[in-house]
């Protein structure tokens, strides 16, 4: 039988005091952020968070969701206001709409929190009366650790944390991007390139995996993993506009411009189309461009954007369904739910020039 992972064991592993480990895992002050992150990572690697009842406060939580007055119950929706993760977003907003509709059908309320700092979040969070949490988009480990600490059931949408175990909901990014790349190969685009910062999010990394696998299965060599358009750090529209422009000019000068550019999402694709037009290149006559997500602006692009439709509202509904199931079956194995996504064919793609 495996020995219990204690705070002392974590402290011995890192060569720090048990006091430092306790402070780090409790979310209290007095420990710098670097040390706190080291403690969290070590605790995860040693299996501390996966132990039953590990790191959870002893709290008498309401069980009304199983038969009491559920109208007094709410679900916390955590969507930190970073990376354009707001209700006004054409992508994230639709996911929240799906969550709201599903909760309303269950007679449950919704409390939206956009806080992204763990210390502020601790002051906001009051678990009494909350059935659980649905996390939307990028959320820091420190925030998720606070949720895990109090034992609040959670489901994450379009994000997963390697240190904090939870149920997750994603679009089927790998298969969808692979199908899109294969479609372009089928109409003659043997010179494809992915424009997506693969370190930015799990979804972008999965889309890169799908793109790469499609090329490799067809005996083609994908762009190197250290390519500039894969290693972008800042997705600010102004910054990306300039970085992509410089990449494009170098490719034009070297006469190795791809015939098709697959973009990590529609926002990226819209900027790519804009830069191509500025440099005198026609879409799709000179370069075909595709997006991903199928936000409303994709149809307003000139020409309208070929993309992958991510059923955003369905992801929100699936997360609520999974959360309610988790509440009633807390010991069931964790699940990663993949929602199918389909290619939407529009006018930004054509066969390559002969």
UniProtKB/TrEMBL annotation:
Residues 242-307 form the Rhodanese domain. Signal peptide: none annotated. InterPro entries: HTH_LacI, LacI/GalR-like_sensor, Lambda_DNA-bd_dom_sf, Peripla_BP_I, Rhodanese-like_dom. SUPFAM superfamilies: lambda repressor-like DNA-binding domains, Periplasmic binding protein-like I. The keyword Phosphoprotein does not apply. The keyword Repressor applies. This is HTH-type transcriptional regulator DegA.
């Amino acid at each position: 039988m495996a020995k219990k992972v204690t705070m002392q064991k974590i402290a011995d592993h890192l060569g720090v005091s048990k006091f430092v480990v306790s402070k780090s895992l409790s979310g209290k002050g007095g420990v710098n952020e670097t040390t706190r992150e080291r403690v969290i990572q070590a605790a995860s690697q040693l299996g501390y968070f996966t132990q039953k009842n590990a790191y959870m406060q002893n709290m008498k939580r309401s069980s009304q969701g199983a038969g009491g007055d559920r109208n007094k119950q709410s679900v916390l929706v955590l969507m930190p206001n970073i990376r354009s993760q707001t209700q006004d977003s054409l992508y994230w907003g639709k996911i929240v709409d799906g969550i709201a509709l599903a909760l309303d059908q269950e007679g449950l309320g919704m409390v939206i929190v956009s806080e992204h700092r763990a210390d502020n979040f601790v002051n906001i969070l009051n678990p009494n009366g909350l059935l659980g949490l649905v996390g939307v988009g990028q959320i820091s480990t420190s925030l998720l650790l606070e949720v895990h600490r109090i034992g609040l059931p959670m489901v994450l949408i379009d994000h997963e944390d390697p240190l904090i175990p939870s149920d997750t909901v994603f679009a089927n990014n790998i298969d969808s991007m692979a199908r899109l790349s294969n479609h372009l190969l089928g109409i003659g685009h043997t010179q494809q390139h992915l424009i997506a910062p693969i370190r930015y999010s799990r979804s972008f990394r999965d889309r890169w995996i799908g793109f790469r696998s499609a090329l490799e299965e067809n005996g083609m060599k994908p762009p190197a993993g250290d390519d500039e358009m894969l290693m972008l750090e800042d997705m600010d529209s102004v910054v990306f506009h300039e970085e992509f422009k410089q990449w494009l000019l170098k490719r034009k000068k070297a006469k190795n411009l791809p015939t098709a550019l697959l973009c990590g999402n529609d926002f990226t694709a819209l900027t790519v189309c804009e830069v191509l037009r500025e440099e005198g290149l026609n879409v799709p006559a000179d370069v075909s461009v595709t997006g991903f997500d199928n936000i409303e602006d994709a149809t307003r692009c000139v020409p309208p954007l070929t993309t992958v439709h991510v059923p955003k509202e369905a992801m929100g509904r699936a997360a609520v369904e999974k959360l309610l199931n988790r509440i009633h079956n807390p010991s069931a194995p964790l699940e990663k739910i993949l929602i199918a996504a389909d290619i939407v064919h529009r006018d930004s793609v054509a066969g390559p020039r002969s």
